[in-house]
Write a structure and sequence with these properties.
It is a multi-pass membrane protein. By secondary structure, this protein is mostly helical. 80% of the residues lie in helices and 0% in strands.
Amino acid sequence: MTTTTRSLPSCSSARHWPGVIVAALTATAAVMPGFTVGALASTIETDLHTARSTVGLAMSLFYAATAFGSPVAKRAAARLPVPTVLAAAALVASTVMLVAARATGPGMLTATLLVGGLSNALVQPVAGRLIAVRVPEHRRSLAAGVIGAALGAGALVPGLLVALVLPAYGWRSALLVAGIAALVPAALAPLARAPGSPPPPRKEAGAVGDEQRTVGRVLALWALAAALSATGNNAVATYFVELGTHSGLGTTVTGHLLSLSAVFAIAVRIIAGALTDRAPHRNPAVIVAMMLTGGLGLALVAIGPPTTFVLGAILAFSAGWGWTGLLLATTLRLVPGRTEDAGHTVQIGVYTGATIAPFTFGALSSAYGFPATVLAAAVAAVAAATAMTTGTLLLRRAG
């Protein structure tokens, strides 16, 4: 068959980074409602007199809305101007957090998070388009890593809120600050102007059918890998503060640790993207290694004592979440000319796993305790690495 990893048209302009940074800031703002509510979950549960599983269900619906809204978002990303899509996502995220700050019950909180999840679905498909048409090929892994770092930044801000705002002013003020901060990328959205998507590459006659079927299987396996890995890592990110206090750390210390872990996650995404641009064909192997390292981190978190919790948390956040940008860059190479499909594949995988994580983790941890549930998340990370490897081997055999 004819390989589909042909390069996309290169952009020689050096002015692509402002647009990439704006997309990363927007991605951070768009995902913040889910992460912020998760970081504040224990306080919200007490104040609203609701169970852990109820708040977990609200967060699951946020991620479910992103996953199920992805097909519609993919079409919007292809048709609407990039700045318009990014500004809309940031404005909705800001509104969601401002309204959630005034929630009087779990129903209102759930409804606002559902809207936030739908707007979050807009970001990854339009980010894939932006990278494809504005970033030179030899910088695409780095650009995807910068945008992928939004997941780390999305956890960094809530960690700071837990450490600096929550103790003195409460969870409502913390959500208010987060909502105001989400307005920044909306103001910067015009910097992300981009032309239309590149045309699909030509393929030899007779090869299209087999090629598309193989690519479809590979994308499905990679999306499954993203879902499995995200299930474990998102659960730990969501309940990080509660897990930290369960291991013996104070709430403020855990908030600082969440922020520190998020900084590591941001750094790993950017560094990994810069290094793999030198040999992008190795991206799948790097992704597998990161997933396995994240599984090791989850296993250390499951052990329980503060020392292993700190080490495991850093590994789970930095490596366990560090593959998202690389997977976006890898799928961009696999489906040139279908840039929205690349972002859609990553998004539907990550957020399907994220949908399963909060409610399932909340319910299982209530029944079996935190250690056993986190250990199950570590097993999911190993299964994710297996699915990623299977897809890569299938692609090599077909090529």
